Amino acid sequence: MSPTPQDDQFEWRETYFVLFEAARRPLLRQVQKAVRELGGHFQVKSAAADAAGHIETLNIVSPRDHSALEIEYASGDEVREQVSALKSEMRPGEGVDGGKLARLPKCDARFEIMHFEQMVEEMPGDDADEVFDPSALLVVLDALIELTDGVGVDPQSGTLM
Fold first, then answer.
1. Range 104-120 average pLDDT
2. CA–CA dist 76, 83 (Å, integer)
């Protein structure tokens, strides 16, 4: 799935995770409501839920920020292995929040949040770097952390949020 399946103008930039307890997996409508409350510039492009109404996937586009997000739910062994690897790589006191680190063993589910940049054709005199705003990722990430009482992870830096 891509931010807009019929549109190849998006390029992957980074991936973040929200780790949480599977029992706290929100309903799709709860996530959609949380996104709507973030402001009118976020547009839900496609979404899927399981038979019980829990979120499976959600694609969000933020035209103002020239970005898009693809959110996918996962649970089970793959997530437990990721949590185990994170715990072994991080130690409290090394710039790691000990409280968040202590919550990781309970996490058996995650949202994978893939962030895409909308590639726009440059006009003479434009500075393309000024068009893309990565804050859409951080705003949605914070909303998902709050909704799930989860722990955000920037895998590139190893930072817990």
1. 94
2. 11
At residue 127 the predicted structure's pLDDT band, cuts being 50, 70 and 90, is low
Burial category of 13 from C-beta neighbours within 10 Å (exposed 0-12, middle 13-18, buried 19 and up): middle
Dump pLDDT digits (tens) for 5-48.
346 789 999 999 999 999 999 999 999 999 999 987 899 999 99
Strands (E) located in the chain: 10-20, 43-49, 55-62, 67-75, 109-118, 151-154, 159-160
Q: How many H helices and E strands in the chain?
A: 4, 7
Global pTM reads 0.86
Which distant-in-sequence residues (6+ apart) come within 8 Å of 21 by Cβ?
106, 107, 108, 109, 148, 149
Main-chain dihedrals φ then ψ at residue 87, nearest 5 degrees: -60, -40
Residue 159: beta bridge partners? 154
4: Cα separation from own chain's centroid: 16
